[in-house]
Design a protein that fits this description.
With 256 residues, this protein is an alpha/beta fold. It is built from 11 helices and 5 strands; from the N terminus they run H-H-H-H-H-E-E-E-H-E-E-H-H-H-H-H. The radius of gyration is 23 Å and the shape is elongated.
């Protein structure tokens, strides 16, 4: 039974480039749509509440337009990381499902499960290698332990290995004791069996990127102008200087 299972795993077809390209072209539009929707739905007061006014004062950002643009860029960057991270996770699941029959895991904190060479792998997928603090990493390890216990009781005698998979970056010491950490090329090769996949992904991501970004850039310019005007009205004195006290009070004052 074990031998036939291994044979089946080795005979599974690897992902074809055309399948990869079709998935990316079909699903990358959702990334562009979501980032545009987030931008169009933004309100200045929501961004100002989330950002550190002391930092901007320390950086001597005394031009309203520059300050607004810096705040907006920082907010959008963090939003885009999250949106694109979701896309990469779905793409990794697709790749592994075609290469090794991988499935989305039902275990808490685990994104992907698949078998290869008689081993059951449980994978937590992150965008990059520096994704969490010590508490978040400890929680991931707890999730791995829990998932291992469940899999061990359900499938007696199966070896289970936990993996933290990172879609980009490097970590040349993958053995972390309780789990393996595969980043960049190592991760994509691990879930696909193709050592070159990590470079082949980049080209289809750029298909029609300029056209898809035109509407976003148009709305971005409008947002900068709109927020700059609003900021000047509410947080600038008549001589044009920024009312830092008023900005800090809006951001941090307790409710009376």
């Amino acid at each position: 039974m074990k031998c036939s299972s291994l044979k089946k795993e080795h005979l599974m077809p690897k992902i074809k480039k055309q399948q990869m390209v079709e998935f990316i072209e079909k699903n990358i539009q959702a990334f562009h749509d979501k980032r545009l929707a987030r931008l169009c739905g933004l309100q200045l007061h929501r961004i100002l509440k989330r950002k550190n006014p002391y930092l901007f004062r320390a950086k001597a950002l005394n031009v309203a337009q520059d300050l607004v643009k810096t705040i907006l860029d920082a907010y959008l960057s963090s939003q885009e990381e999250g949106i694109f991270g979701g896309f990469l996770e779905e793409f990794a699941l697709f790749i592994c499902s075609r290469s090794y029959g991988g499935v989305k895991s039902s275990a808490e904190g685990v994104d992907l499960e698949f078998s290869k060479d008689g081993v059951r792998y449980i994978v937590s997928i992150k965008s990059g290698p520096n994704w969490g603090n010590s508490r978040q990493i400890a929680r991931m390890k707890d999730d791995f332990r829990r998932a291992k216990r469940i899999l061990g009781s359900n499938v007696s005698g199966t070896k289970v290995i936990a993996v933290n998979g990172c879609c980009y970056g490097k970590d040349d010491k993958p053995d972390k004791g309780e789990y393996l950490k595969y980043c960049g090329q190592r991760f994509w090769e691990f879930i696909s069996g193709d050592e070159n996949l990590y470079t082949e992904i980049i080209e289809p991501l750029g298909h029609m990127a300029k056209e898809k970004n035109e509407k976003f850039l148009e709305e971005y310019d409008k947002a900068v102008n709109r927020f700059g005007r609003e900021f000047t009205i509410h947080y600038c004195a008549s001589d044009g200087s920024i009312l830092w006290d008023k900005l800090v009070k809006f951001n941090s004052r307790k409710k009376s």
